[in-house]
Amino acid sequence: MPAETRTHRKQLPEEAASYARELIISGAVRPGEFLRLESIAQAVGISNTPVREGLLTLRSEGFVQLVPRRGFVVAPFTPQDVRDLFWAQARLAGELAARAAQSITGEQLARLEANLEEYERASAAGDGGRLAALGHQFHREVNLAAGSHRLTLVLGSIVKQLPNRFYAGIEGQVDATRDEHPLVLDALRRRQPRLARGIMEEHIAERAESLTKLLAGRGLW
């Protein structure tokens, strides 16, 4: 089997898991509700087999439970679960930002500056999908600048459990990113690890409260 085909097939369960995870953490499906393999397969455009594999991944993350002969049911999800995920993300991302402040290159700084400029344009255009992608790209660039591959992988395993597609729609999120990402960049440019850590940790921690308020408003809790 060609390597490209093997890679594509490996990604299908990840796509299904990402789609179902987003349904859960956005409140589109509630604790106690069953996830239908057929519906997810149709939405993602794949067969039931990789959907099942993806849901097994979510079971290992605690998002779903497998009920014998009935299928996958959404597990209880609490505000503290949200805060815990963001707490872990904030600590790891803060450490990576501190390391990046010591090792970031001029080329990497230029890419971050270009990212902020493009974010402004996407904000003016109201392009929520592009805003989410650019926000993710900014953080990825900072993480790569830290030069800490293992720590970045651990952070990635946490970040994938958090919402992405609908996040730009959270009230105040776009404005907060427009204000705070330049502060992170300035700390990196000035080679101030402690400042970069503090700004990054606070930036991410605040998102936990935004998300818990959003989900409370949707009646999830």
UniProtKB/TrEMBL annotation:
Keywords: DNA-binding, Transcription, Transcription regulation. PROSITE patterns: HTH_GNTR (PS50949). Residues 10-77 form the HTH gntR-type domain. InterPro entries: GntR_C, TF_FadR/GntR_C, Tscrpt_reg_HTH_GntR, WH-like_DNA-bd_sf, WH_DNA-bd_sf. It comes from the Bacteria. The keyword Transcription applies. GO terms for molecular function: DNA binding; DNA-binding transcription factor activity. PANTHER family: GLUCONATE OPERON TRANSCRIPTIONAL REPRESSOR (PTHR43537:SF24), TRANSCRIPTIONAL REGULATOR, GNTR FAMILY (PTHR43537). This is GntR family transcriptional regulator. The lineage of its organism: Bacteria, Bacillati, Actinomycetota, Actinomycetes, Pseudonocardiales.
